Amino acid sequence: MIMKSYRKELWFEVPTRRAFVNITRQVEACLRESGVQEGIVLVNAMHITASVFINDDESGLHQDYDRWLEALAPHEPVAQYLHNRTGEDNADAHMKRQIMGREVVVAITKGKLDFGPWEQIFYGSQPHLAPRAISQSGGQPRVPDIARQAFVEKS
Amino acid sequence: MIMKSYRKELWFEVPTRRAFVNITRQVEACLRESGVQEGIVLVNAMHITASVFINDDESGLHQDYDRWLEALAPHEPVAQYLHNRTGEDNADAHMKRQIMGREVVVAITKGKLDFGPWEQIFYGSQPHLAPRAISQSGGQPRVPDIARQAFVEKS
Amino acid sequence: MIMKSYRKELWFEVPTRRAFVNITRQVEACLRESGVQEGIVLVNAMHITASVFINDDESGLHQDYDRWLEALAPHEPVAQYLHNRTGEDNADAHMKRQIMGREVVVAITKGKLDFGPWEQIFYGSQPHLAPRAISQSGGQPRVPDIARQAFVEKS
Asked: pLDDT-derived band of residue A127, with 50, 70 and 90 as boundaries?
């Protein structure tokens, strides 16, 4: 019997303030590398304003999400949030992340993500560093954006 | 030592447009079949507009959820959502699903779901096929509605 | 090879009607007790109005969450919720819990919670017993507030 636990980080840069990035292919590649046949995979964001969620890869839907989240937790006026007194301006992103979720757990069956027909995994990027921090790093910082953990039984 | 990984789908039909179905008994039956004593179970929806969540089995509460979700993400007017330009009319259901959640992970202790006194597992059904698809299939289609995955250590 | 499954409950009293309690240190202590090196930990609330979530430990942000949740699902008027006809007055807390979430699943790597730089685990307490039940017990009742389950492979 071989037991496996496999971990991989995805690092990437998102050019826009907010974006939903389909990472299904990357998670599948990681799954193949892990050799896991039966088990589960945890995919989570490492930033507290970012999300990992499962839904449809349809651009209209993503624009709907964006508009809906903005209505539920508006970015402006920035001063409406106490958190922004810390010098950040992303309090709204902390609210939006609670709705979209930090993580997904997916079953692995016969070496594949055990998905329904339309399920795709997305990384929801939101501003996670203050403008000050970004300019200090001399541009868009590279930060670890996903940790994934496959955990599995194989007989 | 015996390692176990067990998977089962629940298929069912929901007669109404939206419904919260208590599936706790079915998950418990699956758990008994699996023989798992200590571990975790993942219960997830396979439709991207459906939910699996844990809460109270109280009909007033479920009506409250229904009304609250409708206020947060109204079905009408259908044209307010870009996603509905694809010919579907369920964009609101994709929003509601983000609030109710895709999946739950539950601890298994001594062969039982390790629950607090009022915890019950629900499947939240929402429209997941366009009216066109439904009529093509000659009525309410049967679709796989739940995948569950038990994953466990037993010494 | 040693396989491990470890479970521990956290019990605590929250003096205020609502509170976000940082339980990261307690989960880390549990992790050390378990001896788990590689795997996952499930941390979940056992009350259906309580939450476990991961975010920033910043008091302004927590006040923002509190105000935001109250706007999305107001406590008053109590009679707006059918659930409150049961004699409870916490229907709003059942709504808020869906937004904040019941559980988190965290990867364990080299014996540590595999966290990004700001990730902390919080227990979000909300009223979970009717005033009647509280007074019957002669004060604030002690109730089990967290179950955690570590599940792991160690070679």
From this structure: low
Nearest to A58 among B73, B83, B151 (CB): B83
Kindly list the residues from chain B whose CB atom is less than 8 angstroms away from the CB atom of residue A4. none
Are C116 and A5 inside 8 Å of each other by CB? no
- Which chain A residue has its CA at the smallest distance from C98's CA? A99
State which amino acid sits at residue C25: R
CA B4 to each of CA A154, B39, B145, C36, C125: distance values in angstroms, whole numbers, following the listed order: 9, 10, 23, 19, 35
CA distance C95 to chain A (A): 12
Q: Which residues in C lie closer than 8 A to residue A82 (C-beta atoms)?
A: 59-61, 63-64
Residues 120-149 of A with CB under 8 A from C: 144, 147-149
Q: Could C60 and A83 be called an inter-chain contact, meaning their C-beta atoms sit closer than 8 Å?
A: yes
Tokens at residue A77, please?
A: 């006026």
Which pLDDT tens digit goes with each residue over C121-152?
Answer: 999 987 654 333 333 333 333 344 454 555 54
Distance between CA atoms of residues C63 and C79, nearest Å = 25
Could you tell me how far CA B84 lies from the centroid of its own chain?
Answer: 23
Q: B touches which chains (3+ CB pairs under 8 A)?
A: A, C
**For residue B92, what pLDDT is reported?**
96
- Which of B52, B61, B121 to substitute to test the interface with C, most C CBs within 10 Å? B61
Tens of pLDDT, residue by residue over C72-106, are 999 999 999 999 999 989 999 999 999 999 999 99
User: How far is the C-alpha of C100 from the C-alpha of C59, rounded, in Å?
Assistant: 16
Could you tell me the pTM of the whole model?
0.87
Backbone angles phi, psi at B153, to 5 degrees: -110, 135
Any B CB within 8 A of A114 CB: yes
Residue A95 and residue C64: Cβ atoms within 8 Å? yes
Contacts 24+ apart (CB under 8 A), B85-92: B85/A60, B86/A58, B86/A60, B87/B130, B87/B132, B88/B130, B89/B127, B89/B130, B89/B131, B90/B49, B90/B126, B90/B127, B90/B128, B90/B130, B91/A60, B91/A61, B91/A64
Choose from A123-132, B141-150, C46-55, C57-66 the range with maximum mean pLDDT. C57-66
Taking the C-alpha atoms of residue B111 and residue B29, their distance in angstroms, rounded to an integer, is: 11
Residue B30 contacts residue B79 (beta carbons within 8 Å): no
